[in-house]
Amino acid sequence: MARVVKLVLDTIKHHPLHKMWLKLAQDLAGELGVELEVKEEDYVYAINHGDTDELGMAWLPQLFAVLDDGSVKLVLSQFPFDPKTTKPDPDAALEEARRRLKEIMGEA
Questions:
Q1: pLDDT at position 1, please?
Q2: Rounded distance, CA 35 to CA 84, Å?
Q3: Whether the model pTM is above 0.85
Q4: Count of beta carbons in the 10 Å neighbourhood of residue 67
Q5: Is CB count within 10 Å lower at the N or C end of the chain?
Q6: β-pairing, 35-40 with 62-67?
Q7: In the chain, how many domains are there?
Q8: Structural domain span for residue 51
Q9: Closest CA to 26 of 103, 90, 77
């Protein structure tokens, strides 16, 4: 069973949802009791470990988990929106990230 040793948020400070991404990452790191590393505009990191478009380019923000074996897994690459209001949904983001972390750690 894999263990998360650190979360990494690769972000852009001027992104409209930057603060929501940061709060999400801080909340998850607190729940897991692990360090949070915040990278700013590290596109190489995102390309190597995250989601990319059809041309191989990554977008930011993206959230990653570093495991005890040194591997990096993508936790979340798109912030969910509430379909009724079309506004960002922090609760859905937290639930989706928790679900993905359970999958990564082999608990799902």
A1: 81
A2: 35
A3: yes
A4: 15
A5: N
A6: unpaired
A7: 1
A8: 4-104
A9: 90
Cα-to-chain-centroid distance, residue 73: 9
* Closest alpha carbon to 25 in 8, 41, 13: 8
Distance CA 98, CA 104 (A): 10
Structure tokens of 107?
Answer: 């608990």
**CATH code, domain carrying 66:** 3.40.30
Q: By the 8 A CB rule, do 97 and 28 touch? A: yes
The pLDDT profile of the chain, 108 residues, written as one tens digit per residue, is 889 999 999 999 999 999 999 999 999 999 999 999 999 999 999 999 999 999 999 999 999 999 999 999 999 999 999 999 999 999 999 999 999 999 999 865
